[in-house]
Amino acid sequence: MAAGWLGLPMDKDGAIARNGKEIPGLAAQLSNLHWFALAPPKSLGREWFTDHFLPLITPWQTQPEDLLHTLTRWIARTIAAAFPGKDFGTVLTTGGGALNSFLMEEIRSHTQLTVEIPARQIIDFKEALIFAFLGLLRMEHRNNIIADVTGAIRASCGGAVYLP
Predict the structure, then answer these.
(1) Do 128 and 156 belong together in one domain?
(2) 154 with 130: CB under 8 angstroms?
(3) Which of 14, 52, 67, 72 is the right S-S partner for 100, CB 3.0 to 4.6 Å?
(4) How many whole angstroms separate alpha carbon 101 and alpha carbon 18?
(5) 101 near 14, Cβ under 8 Å?
(6) For residue range 53-83, what is the model confidence (pLDDT) as tens digits?
């Protein structure tokens, strides 16, 4: 979004963010949003983003470089804080953020974890891979809804199979 305020589709490699400056107090405001205090499993919808997150960052649209810098560093610290004292060893990073070298550097600087970036095909098509796997589990009548991950009451096998 902030890159869009500069007329760009994205901040390639975090180059714009890397040259910005921290906006004092903004990271603390973002961290104080109630959602971040909730225990997992939790999910984040566009409505929440529009209602709670966007109002905090929109006033800074005249300083997109600084906003990108602040958000990138805050995101990295927030991700790193999700792993305190946990020996995960290696964390697989996917999604568009995996392509942002500044973000990946910042995450690495705040954690002892090894941040693994997979092949570009996995980054770009992870949802398709996951849904194919969920479909396979359904075809095998195995649980594809995991309570610990989704917050469901119990694990179950969901979905439907329609054959021609």
Answers:
(1) yes
(2) no
(3) 14
(4) 10
(5) yes
(6) 999 999 998 899 999 999 999 999 999 888 8
